[in-house]
Design a protein that fits this description.
It is a single chain. The protein is mostly helical. The protein has 19 helices and 12 strands. The protein has helices at residues 18-32, 52-65, 80-93, 103-116, 182-192, 205-218, 248-253, 258-267, 280-286, 301-314, 317-330, 338-351, 358-364, 366-369, 378-381, 386-400, 406-420, 424-436, 444-465; strands spanning 5-8, 37-42, 74-75, 96-99, 140-143, 150-155, 159-164, 172-174, 197-201, 224-228, 231-232, 297-298. The strands form 5 sheets. Strands 1-2-3 form a 3-stranded parallel β-sheet. Strands 4-5-8 form a 3-stranded antiparallel β-sheet. The chain has a two-stranded antiparallel ribbon with strand order 6-7. α16 (386-400) crosses α19. The model has no long low-confidence stretch (mean pLDDT 95).
Length: 468
Amino acid sequence: MTQVVTRFAPSPTGFLHIGGARTALFNWLYARGRGGKFLLRIEDTDRARSTPEATEAILKGLDWLGLDHDGEVISQFDRADRHAEVAHELLAKGAAYKCFATQDEIEAFREAARAEGKSTLFQSPWRDADPATHPDLPYVVRLKTAQEGATVIDDQVQGTVTIRNDQLDDMVLLRSDGTPVYMLAVVVDDHDMGVTHVIRGDDHLNNAARQMGIYEAMGWPLPVYAHIPLIHGADGKKLSKRHGALGADEYQKMGYPAAGMRNYLARLGWSHGDDEFFTDDQAKEWFDLEGIGKSPARFDFKKLENLCGQHIAASEDAALLHELEAFLQATGAPALTEGQRDGILTGMYCLKERAKSFPELLDKAHFILTETPIVPEEKAAKSLDSVSRGILGALTPHLQNASWSRDELEAELNRFCEEQGMKFGKLAAPMRAALAGRAATPSVFDMMLVLGRDASIARLSQAAETTA
């Protein structure tokens, strides 16, 4: 059985668009789930618009998403000589021809066709001309497209797509300066790279019909085609800047974990029964082309956040800390100190529950990250009146010798509340203000366990001694 080989082939004219990221993910999942290869090709033949910065942004986006590729990154531009070589092979076979028609002649043909109500597809007078009649002038090389019958694309997503050959023109393969066109380069690269499955956006569906002509003329086996629908915004319109973040790097800076992003993008247009949350291993095992829908998927931030929250909760603590630090670096935020790293790692069990993004997780970790002495926020400061400070002052001796476990701390604080004749809620508010400087925090027990005995008592004592 032939090894599966897929590829992702972006043009380096900007960031890694979220639609491109999903295309890359589908190719990666399909190859990885079948022990195949996932290749990366940068389609940089448009020299005016291709930039090294855009290539770097694409590579960084794929790296953040965890979509590793096999082998070296291939530059399409670097292979121009090979593309031209195939065009000359087609010329030698009689499957292509030299066309000397000028742009003025082509436009005159089209104007005449429009006037007569005929097809404006250019029909070159040089298609069957005797080479002895060729002038010593610049020419393009055109593919001899079949003029009768139809080209049938057996697409794994779109089904059987039939395009009449009289709707296809004789495509240019080499420009008059001898440089190959994109449509030729794609086919030659896919063949030479051994690509078995071309999974790409359905905006390339019409290209497939024209590219198949090159495969057939060269006697090369056709790849399996799967043209996937584009992504739309929640309003049903094609995804654009008005819908929010577009580039993969923007989603990283918004603080979404890569695993959650992979899960969400996989579900965006593909389904496996009713499964919503799944791991990478499950996605690789389950992903198939049959599960891709024909209709455009709608991007939904609420669903993304929900899945990201589930992935944060399910992540290994050390891996989550590593990705949190990458988020801080990506946003230009200060790096964590060693003490902050240790504190977050210790407290991860209570920080990651119900956090849907890294900003939310960091917000919950405020009590670890804040500087001491703590200056409470306005709402929290209201909990530290003279009576509450007196209560905190009375509490600290009880904690000096307490066993620093959750059960023991709960028992100790409940005993203290009974002695004081008050409910625990009356104690919790000033403790939150003292330990974190905020009114909304993780539980006081979690904060005390994470901070440890010395830091907890120091903060409570400092709050008790502070005058209003």
